[in-house]
Every structure is written in structure tokens, then in C-alpha cells.
Amino acid sequence: MRTDLPALIIIDMQKAMANPAAGERNNPQAGSRIADLLAAWRAVDAPVVHVRHMSRTPGSLFWPGQPGAEFQDALLPLAREHVVEKNVPDAFIHSGLERWLRVRGITRIVMAGVSTNNSVEGSARSAGNLGFDTTVVADACFAFACTDYAGQARSAADVHAMALANLDGEYATIGDSAGVLRALAGAT
């Protein structure tokens, strides 16, 4: 594994996230963008981390043993890739992820996955606060529509854009998959 390259961290790309019951989402191409990133990282033997949410709420689609808790077939981890299980949105909390990265001397990370305003944003905030050089790949993440605190319905695109704005420059750099793939190719 080439630890001189950034680690790709794929967050919560589980079968439940593809369930139409999850609601209106943006970036329908996000899954294929993540697959492109994953293929590129594998081709150069760069570090890959797959994060899986395992709910503590009985009946949740993410409850251990439920089909929704399993990784999406197109993004299944290889035996050499690290898998992190989490019980809260932030992939760094009680997971050993920070230690895994530090032991390997990895200081740069690229994040993709779902949902932009929840697990991706929470994880990217921690990564930035912990001193990792973090890039969030905007077109390889997606969010779901929701109602804000004031009762205003917000589209998935609005939720996604606001989460990225919350991160940009403060905790992470926001990029797109084409730029991230060019940077990876230039570093190898």
C-alpha cells in the first residue's frame, strides 16, 4: 500500500442508502463517481477505507444483520482494504480511524459518500480539526431533502450545497472527481 498517497475514505455506501424510501436525493451519478475513485485508488495501490454505519436502533435499516447495513455490491471492500464500523455520524468517533491513519503516516485524505450533511460533514469536520489535509469530492457525495429548523422544505441539492459550504476552507477543500483523479494521476 502506497501511504505516500492520500487515503480514499468512502462513507456509508450501504444498501439502505439506495432504498427509494430514503427520500429525494441529489447527485444521482455519485455512486458511479465513487466507483471511479475506488478503481483509481486500487490501480495505484493507494490506501482505501470503507466506513459502514451500524445503528444502535432496533429496526433501523442499518441494524446489524439487515440487508441495508451491507455495502453496495459495486463498492464491496477488498480483503486488503480497511473497514471501519461506526455508530454515530462521525467516522472518527470510537472507531480507531485516526489511529489507523496515523500509524501509517497518512496525512491526506479524500472523502466521498453519504450523506453530505451528516456523516460526510461530521467526518470531514473531525478530519480537519485533527490536522488531516482533507478533500471532500462534491460530485461523489449526495444528500437527501429535508425540512430545516424553521420549517422550510429544502431540496437535496440545497442541503448538499450548504453542507459543502460549511466545510469549504475551514475543515476541508471541496473538489470534484475529475480534479481529484487528475491529482492522483499526477502524484503517481
Automatic annotation (TrEMBL):
GO molecular function, one term: hydrolase activity
Key words, A-Z: Hydrolase
Pfam family for this entry, one: Isochorismatase
Domain Isochorismatase-like: 7-156
InterPro entries: Isochorismatase-like_dom, Isochorismatase-like_hydrls, Isochorismatase-like_sf
Keyword 4Fe-4S on entry: no
Presence of the UniProt keyword Hydrolase in the record: yes
Alphabetical list of PANTHER family matching this protein: ISOCHORISMATASE HYDROLASE, PEROXYUREIDOACRYLATE/UREIDOACRYLATE AMIDOHYDROLASE-RELATED
Name of the protein this chain belongs to: Cysteine hydrolase
UniProt organism field: Massilia rubra
